[in-house]
Design a protein that fits this description.
Shape: globular
CATH architecture: 3-Layer(aba) Sandwich
Structural class: alpha/beta
Strand content: 25-35%
Number of helices: 8
Order of helices and strands: EEEHEEHEHHHHEHEHEEE
Low-confidence stretches: none
CATH superfamily: P-loop containing nucleotide triphosphate hydrolases
CATH topology: Rossmann fold
Radius of gyration: 17 Å
Largest sheet: 7 strands, mixed
Length: 226
């Protein structure tokens, strides 16, 4: 089962700027853990934004779990993004006024899930990422690695088909970064969730099952990692 298809994506910003993405194509089967690598300005973040439905392509096609996203209305795209995609960011993007479990439960809040169920599911996911004893702490009371674990719990709490991780270890020291990477690998293996991770760290990329390299907006022939 293919979870993500990216076919001939084109994206430019402004006249005379050239193509940020130039016929970019690849696909990910269910349960894949892929690293997206490339130099600064190669199109990594643009590609992730398009797959995450945060921006629109000029042409080409994206299919997520069988749904062609190009024809979706803004409301339909927002629904698909909330139901099928989880996001993990370099800067965590936690809300300072909320506790760890409240941050982890946010996708469920946006789905209209009741508070008791939200809390129960968020607590279960925090336990899954090793933070059961920090559920009522706010972000400023947590270390960087703990904040990223909360962000991972938030990404997974809604049982998405696809996780998009943008430099998830970029703000962490090497030891903590490796711990977070090992957690992502464990969750990928145990839950079967598909992960596409942007990283500049080739050591982290080698821990993934697949490396997708992009240069000047073009996807290069893929290679196995590990």
């Amino acid at each position: 089962m293919v979870v993500l298809v990216v076919k001939a994506l084109q994206k430019s910003y402004g006249q005379g700027q050239g193509a940020v993405l130039d016929k970019a194509s690849f696909h990910l089967p269910r349960g894949a853990f892929a690293a997206l690598v490339g130099p600064s300005g190669s199109g990594k973040s643009t590609l992730l934004n398009l797959v995450g439905l945060l921006d629109g392509a000029d042409s080409g096609e994206i299919v997520i779990d069988g749904t062609r996203v190009g024809s979706l209305s803004p409301t339909e795209a927002a629904w698909l993004r909330n139901e099928m995609i989880g996001f993990v960011f370099q800067s965590f993007h936690l809300l300072s006024r909320l506790t760890a479990w409240e941050n982890a439960a946010l996708p469920l809040f946006h789905r209209g899930v009741g508070r008791d169920e939200r809390k129960a599911r968020a607590l279960a996911m925090l336990d899954r990422v090793g933070l059961a004893d920090r559920a009522c702490h706010r972000p400023e009371q947590l270390s960087g690695g703990q904040r990223q674990r909360v962000a991972i719990a938030r990404a997974l709490v809604g049982d998405p088909r696809l996780i998009l991780a943008d430099e998830p270890t970029g703000n962490l020291d090497s030891v903590t970064g490796l711990q977070v990477m090992n957690l992502l690998r464990e969750l990928n293996r145990d839950l079967g969730v598909t992960i596409l991770m942007v990283t500049h760290d080739h050591d982290m990329a080698r821990l993934c099952d697949r490396v997708i390299e992009i240069r000047d907006g073009r996807i290069l022939p893929q290679e196995a990692a590990g």
